Recover the amino acids of this structure.
């Protein structure tokens, strides 16, 4: 009988441990998110944009939606508009600013996010136009070479 009780207790303990997701270290409800965003801000100032991006991204993915989450979104979007850090990606920045406005419409960075959204819409449109013109130029250059070969 004691062995049966011990076996049931051990099975319950093992079942409970198996239900816990030990591999994921989530930030929800934990005080780490503000420190991670502060550290990411420091990394940006120190010129370590990739490391900062990773921290901002972690907070965006794993923290609760609150002021710290909004701050991480804003920091991440700003990284993508900075031409000096090697991470410039206007489309990603545009998506993140849109998300910031959707999730925090009356948030601290509302006016900045709206201004960036307008500027980025223009930049993304110009990038698309430049890519189209470059493709047209390459196509015309190829046609010109073919014509010269025929002469």
């Amino acid at each position: 009988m004691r062995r049966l009780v011990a076996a049931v207790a051990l099975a319950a303990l093992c079942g409970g441990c198996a239900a816990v997701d030990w591999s994921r270290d989530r930030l929800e409800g934990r005080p780490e998110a503000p420190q991670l965003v502060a550290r990411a801000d420091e990394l940006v100032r120190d010129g370590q944009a990739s490391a900062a991006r990773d921290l901002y991204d972690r907070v965006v993915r794993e923290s609760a939606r609150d002021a710290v989450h909004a701050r991480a979104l804003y920091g991440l979007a700003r990284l993508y508009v900075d031409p000096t850090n090697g991470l410039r990606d206007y489309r990603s920045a545009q998506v993140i600013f849109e998300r910031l406005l959707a999730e925090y419409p009356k948030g601290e960075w509302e006016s900045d996010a709206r201004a960036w959204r307008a500027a980025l819409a223009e930049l993304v449109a110009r990038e698309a136009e430049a890519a189209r013109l470059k493709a047209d130029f390459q196509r015309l250059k190829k046609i010109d070479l073919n014509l010269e070969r025929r002469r």
Summary: The helical segments are 2-19, 32-45, 49-62, 67-81, 90-103, 110-150. Confidence is low (pLDDT under 50) at residues 4-25. The longest helix spans residues 110-150. Residues 133 and 139 are 10 Å apart (CA to CA).
